[in-house]
Structure formats: structure tokens, C-alpha cells
Amino acid sequence: MQKTKASENPFNPSFGRVPPVFLDRENTIDKVTEGLKNINSPYQTTLIYGLRGSGKTAIMTDICNNFRDDKKWIVVNLAPTGDMLQVLVSSIYSQAESGVKKLIKNITGVKVSLPGLQIEYRQQGNTSPSYQIILEEILKVLKEKGISLLIAIDEVTASSEIREFASIYQIMIRNGYQVGLIMTGLPKHISELLNDNVLTFLMRSARVNLKPLDLFVVREAYRKAFNGGGRSIGDDVLLKVTRMSDGYAYAFQLLGYLLWESGQGAITDDVLDEITPEFKLQLYRNVYTKIFEDMSSKDREFVFAMAEGEKVNGTSDVEAAYISKTLDKPANYLANYRKRLMDSQVISSKGYGIVRFTLPFFGEYLRDLKLLYG
Q1: Which of 14, 84, 205, 248 has its CA 20 to 30 A from that of 220?
Q2: How far is CA 300 from CA 95, 297, 320, in A?
Q3: Residue 40's CB: how many other CB atoms inside 10 A?
Q4: Do the beta carbons of residue 46 and residue 73 sit within 8 Å?
Q5: Which tens digits make up the pLDDT trace of 36-93?
Q6: Cα separations (Å) of 134 from 71, 108, 166?
Q7: Which DSSP string corresponds to 266-308?
């Protein structure tokens, strides 16, 4: 096969990076961006959730990038661990312009130590630094200067650190400070946060559920990328490639990346066959192994039965009756596990009593897993 001249790959399956071809999410990004600018919008606090590889981090990154060049905003990315308030306070100071830095330094009781930036707050008769008080004082300065704060936290869980931070954030919102918050997480972790008795205010936040990409949009994106990028792809192969992605954001990027890296001018069946083993291997290794590890033993029994049903029936659609018969359990017993897997977006309903995997080749992965490891 004749390789074409190298050019920049428009696909990027790397974690957290905003790829050049970033589709079917523009409306979401625009809606959240505009909502964050309105202090009365529910998007002031936004929760983005979806499967691993659904594009949560990339979307959050893109939203944050929309504010980074605006001098009226300070954007801070926080890790959901450790002393989050201390890191937040230091990050705000380090990103502030010189005039704002000076005002922060002039806050009574605040001491800024360099290098290694450490900010402390000493109240009379109290030698323990209170970062909550420092944060509130800094937010007062930002509000006076007309500057808003955007905090972004990736892959949250219902940890003690997140609970404490979210509680303090709620106080800051209640006190009228100009601060917004975006958090991303897996569906089950976001659900745990929403059901936390201390964090009921999150129920009023905006929630962005990252569902599978529209296959019509996927097809046109592949067509445009390959036919307009010094390569070509016929309609038959284009359809196969689109179906192989199954609307899964990571699979869309990975498949496009591997096809482009093949260096072939024409994307043919032979090219697709050549890169398919690597495509599956990276799906399995980079995403599916972790998804499987996060499942309970009962969830695993359910999906193993589904995977066997795929093979027996020769179709992606598996009847709940088959799963019930395979596991020798009544339908009402399995309903809880079915719902949990649907809430986690691993499976979806395709009609009454029929389910299917939402991830491409996930059933094949499970069958290989059972064959290799028993």
C-alpha cells in the first residue's frame, strides 16, 4: 500500500487534551460557558459526568480555556486531594495581576512567603492559619475589582476532602461572591455526591450527562477529516468505521488516530483490518480493564452473561430473559444490577426486555477475559 505524505493528525486520543476534531459537544461547551458568566444561572455550579473516555476532562478543559485570556476571570484547576483550600488560595494569588496581588498582601493578618509561595492568615491570639478566612478575604478583593473565580476539579469522588471543600464553596456562594465551579466524575461518584446529606445544594446545580456521540455526526466528521486531509475514504468503509466507534468518544478519537497514522492515502478495508487489533488492544488496556475493575462481583456476573448472549445470538442485543436463565435468577432479582449498569452507562436499553453494551467490542473483551483468566 502506498503511504501518503505525512501531515498533522487531527485526532487525539490522549487523556485530557482537547483534540482538533472535537464534535457533538460544542453546544454543551457554549451553554456552560455562557451560564458561568451569569451569576444567577444554574451553571454557576456544573457537574459533568459520563463513562471513562466520554470526554469529560476535554470538555472541562475547553470550557476553562474560554476564560483564561479574560482578565476579569481567574481559572484554577484543583486536584481533589490534600488541602484543597490552601492550594486554591495560593493558586489565586499566583495568577492574579500585580495590582490584585498587592491588595491581597494588604489584607490584615495575611502573610505571603516566597519562594514556594505560602500564604498564611494570623488572627490575634490565634497562631493557626485559617484558609477559609483567607479565601473569603481574597474573594472580597476580587469582587471589588470585578474579577470572577472559576474552579475546575476533575474526577471527583465523595471523599472527605471534596465534602469539606464543597461545603465551604456553598458558603462562598451564599455570601454572594463571584465564584463558579465545574466538577467532572463518573456517574456513580456524581450520584454519591448528589445524595450526600451535607451537600444537598448540589441538587440545584446544572448537570451535563455525556451520552454517546450521534453516529450521523461521527460519520460526517470522519468523512471531512479524511477526504479533506489529503486522504480518501469510500462510503462503505466510512460506514464500517463509524459503526466501529459506536459513538464512544474515546473510540472515535483512537480509531481516527490509528487510521491516520497508518499513512495510507486511501482508507480501505485492508487498512481498517490492519489497525483493528491495535484499536481493540488500546481500548481494552486503556479503558475497559479499569471499567471492569470498578464493577461489583454481581455486576460482573451480569455482563459476562450478556457477553455470552451476544455470542450465542450473533447480535449486540441481548434479551433479559437469556441473562435470567443463564444466571438462574429471577428478573426482579437482576433488575437492580441492570439499573446500576445502565446508570453507570455501561449498558443501555434497546426496547422492552433487551439490553446492549454501550462500548464497542466490550462483549468481545469480556469473552477474551474469561477465556484467558477463567
Answers
A1: 14
A2: 46, 5, 15
A3: 6
A4: no
A5: 998 889 999 999 999 999 989 989 999 999 999 899 999 999 999 988 998 898 899 8
A6: 22, 10, 16
A7: EE-HHHHHHHHHHHHHHHIIIIIHHHHHTS-HHHHHHHHHHHH
